[in-house]
Design brief:
The complex is a heterodimer.
Chain A (H helix, E strand, L loop, with lengths): L1 H18 L19 E2 L3 E7 L4 H12 L4 E7 L4 E6 L5 E2 H10 L3 E8 L1
Chain B lengths: L2 H14 L25 E14 L2 E15 L4 E14 L7 E4 L2 E12 L6 E12 L12 E12 L2 E10 L23 E13 L9 E14 L4 E13 L2 E14 L5 E12 L2
Antiparallel strand pairs in B: 1-2, 1-13, 2-3, 3-4, 3-5, 5-6, 6-7, 7-8, 8-9, 9-10, 10-11, 11-12, 12-13
The chains are: A alpha+beta, B mainly beta.
Chain lengths: ~120, ~280
């Protein structure tokens, strides 16, 4: 009886794992960009982030970004894995600070582009 | 403090701590996941569970309110405190109902491997270890300091997600089963407990994320196997729904026994779990 139940649970778990092997949205070129700790004055920045997983994770990123001095607003697009932050254009913000916030949230930072 | 007051007090603590972000990728209701809060953040989760057991023909109804606070120690380490409040009613005349705090559990989780191949895709492995403390009231406690160790895996791939977890609990004391105070749950007797659980999560809506996505609805299927080293074993399934918005999550899962072979504790008839996670 015990052997049957253990086998059943293991088989079912294997089916679960197989079910989660499809539909992946793997990003082409998943290398991570090296970033500078030199502060930059800019009007915005766009980051590529992997491993976002869910809407609540997206909100988590937004809160982490909002805690950084100079960040006015942030938007997360789950379909593309991009995080855009509006900067105040006067406070210097380093790419390293933004990267660290992504990292502390448990996500994988890929690249960043400053605008303005 | 009565169980009802304890529950309200714990809810109040949770509300106080709710100004914090949660990083829980497609976590199902009952099965552990290799996810944890961001560094320096505290998360709060409240889950109610009603379960009906059969104890040699006698009906035992148990309601458990699980309050879990989790602190992100670093990006890879977290510490969780789980405080259950239990209300147990027995149908047989002459036996007192039991209600009060259950055993408090401290859990240390270390995510030692992570691979994120795409925007929403992730693979994570975490080592879990901890201690169950004999904080529970008489009849609701194992009575010992019980350590445990386990491994948890989480994968999110497009609309699909899977969690799998194995855990071994070393019982150092164990509840003394008597007719007045029977052992109802797994892991509360003198035997050790091995738990193997897994879950599948499928995103019903939206089929594709967009920049406007505000919420997701998931179907979840959970499998939980409890095997006491004294030979008692039970396997149950929990198909359910999970609604996840940016600021809150609702979960609902009926608990259905698949097979069980138990001689030393109560037999599970059915149950239902419902929970709430909030993000401010």
């Amino acid at each position: 009886m015990a052997f049957r139940m253990i086998s059943g649970a293991v088989v079912l778990s294997s089916v679960f794992v197989l079910g989660a092997c499809g539909g992946s949205q793997v990003r082409a070129g998943s290398e991570t960009q090296a970033v500078s700790s030199e502060p930059v004055v800019a009007k915005g920045a766009t980051m590529r982030v992997d491993g976002l997983g869910c809407p609540m994770c997206a909100e988590s990123i937004a809160i982490l970004m909002d805690n950084i001095d100079g960040v006015m607003d942030s938007r997360v697009d789950l379909s593309t894995g991009t995080v855009h932050v509006d900067l105040d254009g006067t406070t210097p913000v380093s790419a390293e600070a933004l990267r660290r916030a992504i990292d502390d949230g448990g996500f994988t930072f890929r690249s960043i582009t400053f605008e303005g | 403090m009565s169980p009802k007051h304890s529950a309200w007090a714990l809810c109040a603590i949770g509300v106080f701590l709710m100004g914090t972000p949660i990083a829980h990728a497609q976590e199902s209701a009952l099965v552990d996941a290799a996810t944890q809060p961001a560094k320096g953040r505290v998360t709060w989760r409240e889950q109610g569970r009603f379960e009906r057991f059969d104890l040699n023909g006698e009906r035992v109804d148990q309601f458990t309110l699980d309050t879990r606070l989790t602190l992100g120690l670093s990006k890879d380490w977290s510490l969780a405190l789980n405080v259950p409040t239990i209300d147990r009613e027995r149908s047989a005349p002459g036996f007192d109902d039991r209600s009060g705090l259950g055993d408090v559990t401290l859990t240390l989780k270390h995510r030692f491997w992570q691979h994120d191949p795409g925007p929403i895709d992730t693979n994570r492995l975490a080592l879990v270890t901890g201690l169950r403390l004999p904080a529970g009231t008489d009849g609701l406690s194992s009575g010992g300091y019980d350590p445990f160790v386990g491994l948890t895996f989480t994968r999110v791939s497009g609309r699909h997600g899977v969690n799998a977890s194995a855990r071994y609990l070393l019982t150092t004391s164990g509840e003394r089963a008597t007719s007045a105070s029977p052992v109802v749950e797994a892991g509360k007797s003198g035997a050790d407990l091995f738990t193997f659980e897994s879950s599948y999560v499928f995103r019903l809506s939206p089929s594709e994320y967009s920049s406007e996505t505000e919420a997701s609805l998931y179907f979840t299927a959970e499998s939980i196997l409890d095997w006491d080293t004294d030979g008692d074993i039970d396997w149950r399934l929990a198909p359910g729904l999970l609604y996840e918005a940016r600021r809150f999550t609702l979960e609902l899962s009926p608990i259905i026994p698949v097979a069980q072979d138990v001689d030393r504790r109560a037999e599970r008839e059915w149950g239902v779990a419902f929970g709430l996670r909030v993000l401010f």
